Amino acid sequence: MLREIYPLVVKDAQVARFRDGYPFIFKEALTDSRHVKEAGALLHLRDEAGDYIATGYHHGQQEKGLGWVLSTDETEEIDTDFFKRKIETALDRRDDFFENDDLDGFRVFNGEGDGIGGLTIDCYDHHYMITFKNEGLFSFKREILAALESLIHFKSIYEKRAFQIDGQPVKGDDFLAGERGDFPEALLENGVELLYDLDGGMRTGLNLAERDARRFVRENAEGKTMVSLFADTGTYALEALLGGASSATSVDFATRSRNKTLEQLKHHGIEANHEFVTQDAFDYIGQADKATRFDLVVLTPPSLVKTRTRTFRAEIDLPALLQQVVYLTNRGGRLVVATDCPLFDLERLAQMVQSAFKKTRQKGILVAKYESPADFPLHPLLPEAGQKTVVFEKK
Fold first, then answer.
1. Long-range contacts of range 212-217, CB-CB < 8 Å, 24 or more positions apart?
2. What is the mean pLDDT of residues 366-372?
3. Average pLDDT value for residue range 297-318
4. Superfamily assignment of 207-394 in CATH?
5. CA-CA distance, 138 to 152, in Å (whole number)?
6. What tens digit of pLDDT does each residue of 37-77 get?
7. Alpha carbon separation from 269 to 27, 262, 273 (Å, rounded)
8. What is the pTM of this model?
9. Residue 273 to residue 249: CA distance in whole angstroms
10. Which of 6, 215, 312, 353 could lock onto 305 through a cystine, CB 3.0 to 4.6 A?
């Protein structure tokens, strides 16, 4: 398809930033971007003297920025071969994951960390899922799919469209190629079977980036009482019970979460010693009495909630939530906090949790922290963009 090409001039004060490899194109860096309209259009960045800097694409209707840099080679075509080169390089970086017999689920392409902001590709036991995070990148779907099909052996390929147009989700069949999976299916993660579903809406039921936190829970659960807040499909409760927890409680408001959690536990035949509380986790935390205490607390809060009755932005509201969650943790217990909020890094998360202990006049000791796994590489200039997990012990 023919693409609109928009020439854009970068302000002198921002030129060095882009020449150093900064991948995100933000409006404030440009002299004028009001003429940029078409999602998926190519953006040619030049300095005020007219010298070439980079080629990017317009992401479309997004709250922030204008798009992502794709190339710093003025002669490079943004076509199927371009995407094939990028994806092939990313696949080569994951050789150890393809050869790991205890791990069937991992990320094979991680957005700007692998050179294309807005694109992720995950492998679920040779079922692949392409996630398009904006309308602009979605316009390259044909080229991206052709590139991926030429490089991998696959059972199936699915897509997720993690964006909206005019405030509405983009409808369509998620299935793209191969043979449809008979979902839910199970894959191995650190030797444990976990269920997932690529054909059931936006969420697969398995956040691959949280595998380190799940392993920590299993390895530290023996004899403990455990609660998972914002439990989703119950993988943390499952890991705790497999690790010998005396009881596990999952809290989530969605009936879907309840059903998926019970499905996970039934798959392993360990429904006993588990309670699912169908309640908004924010309300559960706020209404908990002094008797509601656990040895192992897992908090996986959303980055953003905007409803008629609640607004939650992790970068603003997480500190107050953490203070409440500290009270749910028994002395000698562990508090696990995992988030992928892109607006703060691992060190800032650790500082938030430490501050929550101090403000509640409790003592918390950092015992573990996990950055994004190796299959989730981050762009060196955007280190806050990945998954981060901290574990504190309450003294």
1. 212/370, 212/373, 212/389, 213/298, 213/336, 213/338, 213/370, 213/389, 214/189, 214/190, 214/239, 215/190, 215/239, 216/336, 216/368, 216/370, 216/389, 216/391, 217/243, 217/296, 217/298, 217/336
2. 96
3. 94
4. Vaccinia Virus protein VP39 (3.40.50.150)
5. 21
6. 999 999 999 999 999 999 999 999 877 899 999 999 999 99
7. 54, 10, 11
8. 0.94
9. 9
10. 312
Q: Tell me which residue of 207, 204, 132, 117 sits closest to 170, measured CA to CA.
A: 132
Among residues 181, 180, 201, 193, the alpha carbon closest in space to that of 105 is found at 193
Summarised one tens digit per residue, pLDDT across range 189-233 is 999 999 999 987 778 989 999 999 999 999 999 999 999 999 999
Domain 7-71 in CATH 1.10.150.130: no
DSSP, res 267: H
- Please state which CATH number belongs to domain 80-185: 3.30.750.80
Hey, what are 111's tokens? 């957005």
Domain ranges of the chain: 7-71, 80-185, 207-394
Place of tokens 């979460």: 257
Single out the residue of 394, 246, 229 nearest to residue 318, CA to CA.
229
- Per the rule left: phi > 0, alpha: psi between -120 and 50, beta: everything else, 190 is left
